[in-house]
UniProtKB/TrEMBL annotation:
Gene Ontology MF term list: DNA-binding transcription factor activity
Official protein name in the record: Cyclic nucleotide-binding domain-containing protein
Gene3D superfamilies: Jelly Rolls
Taxonomic source organism: Ectopseudomonas oleovorans (Pseudomonas oleovorans)
GO cellular component: cytosol
Amino acid sequence: MYLIGDQPPYVDQLRQALQAIPARLVSGVAPSRQPLQLSPAALLQDWMRNDEVYLIQRGPLRVVLDQRALFQLGEGDLIGLGRTLDLPTLNYESEADVRVLPYDRETFLAAATATPVQRDALLRYMLGQQSLLAQALIRLKPPVTQPATGFRRYAAGEVIIRQGDSAEHVFVITEGHAEAWVDGCKVGEVCQDEIVGALAVFTHTPRTASVIAKTVCTVLVIPQDQFVSLMETTPRIAHSLIENMARHIDTLNKEVTRLRGAQERPSSGN
């Protein structure tokens, strides 16, 4: 996916990272029918089915909303994953000869969620694509109405999530390193590609920890409703995410217990 016009370097880095994921996800999966061959000015949606996803094998596709170009898709991009989400209706216009491979949606999802590694990759891809789409939509809106979504940059020491705040977004660290703090005590590390803030969104409770950038961080910001919709329409991914959160919670609980024990333990000099 290429956004129209100039874009920050970190957006291009994210795009390149996402570009490599679909080929891994469809590895070993046979197309559901013959490849779609599109001539210039053809519309992919004329051939699309609700039960399929599509991998661009060759050629560019321009994505248009209300007769305005949002971005361009190219070789390796996946189309159709978000068709069950509450997203705007997009048109896919070929700008040259395009070859697209169709895959049965359920067969693809079964393969793409067969292992934890695959599930994590699929989740990162879907969240990343959703954020790139949000970034493209933002460019169509006047500055005063731009939503708090897409990408944010945090300097070292800045607070990404503050303990006790309400949960309106889920965050993905796409670049950099952060730390998790509870009641002023450091309880964990947050590394690149980790998803943070999902627990409070799921449970409708205030943030249980603060997340503070340790280095300069680039963060994807996913609105609560979009994230919940993604989880509801792709339960396999939700299951994987819940497993990951459970592991993180267990690790954090052990660290908090250790820190509290150290604070309560009398010093050897007393």
